[in-house]
Amino acid sequence: MSQYIQQLTPTVETWTYLFVTVTFFVYLAIGWSARVRETRGFFIAGQGIPSIANGAATAADWMSAASFISMAGMISFLGYDGAIYLMGWTGGYVLLALLLAPYLRKFGKYTVPDFVGDRYYSSTARVMAALAAIFISLTYVAGQMRGVGIVFSRFLGVDIASGVVVGMLIVGFFAVLGGMKGITWTQVAQYVVLITAFLVPAFALAWRLTGNPVPQLALAFSDILTDLNRLQVELGFNEYTRPFMNKTRLDVLCITLSLMVGTAGLPHVIVRFYTVPSVRAARYSAGWALLFIALLYTTAPALAVFARYNLLTTLNGKTALEVRSHEWVQKWETTGLLSFEDKNDDGRLSLLSDKDANEITIDNDIIVLSTPEVAGLAPWVTALVAAGGLAAALSTAAGLLLVISSSTAHDIYYRLINPKASEERRLWVGRLMILVALGVAGYCGVKPPGFVAQVVAFAFGLAAASFFPLLHLGISACCSP
Predict the structure, then answer these.
(1) How far, rounded to the nearest angstrom, does the alpha carbon of residue 79 sit from its chain's CA centroid?
(2) Looking at domain 11-36+49-473, does it have CATH number 1.20.1730.10?
């Protein structure tokens, strides 16, 4: 009888199919209902998005697969030093929201290259800014496509290439049809999905490991960090909370600073502030977005600690047979992102600080996705996390694709090549460029240049070296007394 009941119990894959199917249909329905036929709606959503909705869309646009999938994994592996991503990305958003975005909105243009071309009185500067926006966006979207491929390959049992293609079709539908208007309202729904998917396992793990259901309070007012530090030392690692062990002080300072100014120069985030009716609305939406972002970013360090503790207690010192008795281990092994090798032939697997002697290899990008299964949470929680990872990746990918589209169709084609182009012609070029960019993004998703946070951090570096100086100098000059 118990075996029969167990057979009827939905598996992780069943729940994942259900959640992904439902959420994808919601995204498609929103994209269809928000379809546009004019360039103003396609590129800046008609500047009619309410502040709170734009705040949620900005948060979803900004919190990519790197934030949802990879950041907690990086903190989990690097410990204290992993906070560089947390400080750099959030600090950069504050810099953008307070010092750049309102003034860019006040300038009244469609895009960042628009601002650069008019502010510096140079068509050449406009072209260079458009090319920079395209290159930054393509680099960034490569990380999102890898995130999509990882989720599909593990939870839906398809290869990464097939998963990337499915993701491309979904994001392509609402991006091509609805432009910025369709993307914005879809991102509002995607924010709800991703934040729910991130918080539910964090609250469950906090309650299970510490007896306190609030992750932030559980991390601060329990013995979980003390226990984790002890485990780390026993295995030859440095204490988890000990600073500057993986990176020097200079590295932490320089990386944090570059991520901050890179965030402030991201074109797909900046363009969100063009979609609201006024400068005041831009400031309000920036505040809402900061609140929505804080929900995830203050939870990530706690989730990283819970994940690290669970992995050490679940995998270390066990035999290969014991480890592979876990269904989640077998399935992650098939993706190639988790592997084992008994190097000293002692019959047990060890997670050690010495990389040459380490017998367990775990990809950073699977930490968040695997944590509910490692902790033994209900299958629907694991499926919810998978749906959240897809929402995070697709929401950012959509925003990046529109930047590529607007940079090409508006800043290069309309402004420089064919100023007399009709509305229909400009829309056609914009939609065509989304399809072209999707093809490039899909290839990068199948053959990524690195793990998600690496690729995204590279895009931030490019934005720091290109857009931030241009925007800072342009705004300082035009807004100084």
Answers:
(1) 20
(2) yes
